Amino acid sequence: MNRIATERKRLDLTQEELAEKLNISQKSISKYETGARKPSFETLTEMAKLFNVSTDYLLGVSDSRTGNNGPFFDTPFPRRTIGSAIRFWIGKTGLGDDEVAEMLGISEELLQSYYSGESMPLDTLMKLSEICEVSTDCLLGLREKTRPKQDGKYPFRFDPEISRRLKDQMQRMGESYSQIADGIGIEEGEVFDFFEYGFVPHIAVFAQIVEHFLVSSDFLLNRTGSTLTVQEDEEELLRSYRALNSKSKTMALSRIYELEREESLVAAKNRYLDSEGKSLPSNGTEGQNKIQR
């Protein structure tokens, strides 16, 4: 049996009760226990504390309930939340809050509000990445050591258009971060990190979000303006179309529009035919607009 389930039952907790203690959804607990998903580091650490066991034990890495560092080991770097991570890396610069705020073009009060967990805009996060000389995933508390620069820039620079498209889909469905998280069985913070900063905890999560919104992954990743996914039987046709020159593409599209009009006319005509192709009897409504004498 999954060790998370074993420890939960040892404490005589239901999935709902454990979820409440960890401030996550019951669906997340269920997925952890079936092995469909692994908990985030923060959730794993909190569970280890609650169960009084090592995180290695919960993950099945070790058979020792206590591990080498006592009942549970803590994060090796002094931060778990975004706010504490930002404070940590700014502290490494040796700059004061007033100096950093001036470099960011914001007030010192606004900077300090980020320490308390207020959402930092993506452009501000990227500027702070350069000031602190660490990649943005470090600033978000998702990584202990910075990633090296690539072509003079730190990696993981999220396209704002992706964020906009994700939020548009969320608004279209009338959902919140917590509703999406519950719908696909992950933590609300993971949804937030993806929508705001582009960090996906696992590719399977992104696949679930694509399926949840019923749009193509290329659309969400700003690779195309079309929300449609290409079906298997359409792929060869699409390849052939792309191989055409501009004039031939125009001719092909014209023919497609003609076929669409023809099908519309046929569909309209068929509305007045029965299964044997005979005209349906009139319901008498076509004469309603005539002036009765």
Would you mind describing this structure in some detail?
By secondary structure, the chain is mostly helical. It has 4 domains: 57 residues, lambda repressor-like DNA-binding domains (434 Repressor (Amino-terminal Domain), Orthogonal Bundle), CATH 1.10.260.40; 66 residues, lambda repressor-like DNA-binding domains (434 Repressor (Amino-terminal Domain)); 61 residues, lambda repressor-like DNA-binding domains (434 Repressor (Amino-terminal Domain), Orthogonal Bundle), CATH 1.10.260; 38 residues. The protein has 17 helices and no strands. Helix 2 packs across helix 3 and helix 11 packs across helix 13. The longest helix is centred in the last third of the chain and has 25 residues. It is extended, with a radius of gyration of 28 Å. The protein starts with a helix and ends in a 23-residue tail after the last helix. The relative contact order is 0.06.
Q: What is the gist of this entry?
A:
The chain has 293 residues and is mainly alpha-helical. It has helices spanning 3-10, 15-22, 26-34, 41-51, 55-59, 82-93, 97-104, 108-115, 122-132, 136-139, 160-172, 177-184, 188-197, 203-213, 217-220, 232-243, 246-270. Helices cover 57% and strands 0% of the residues.
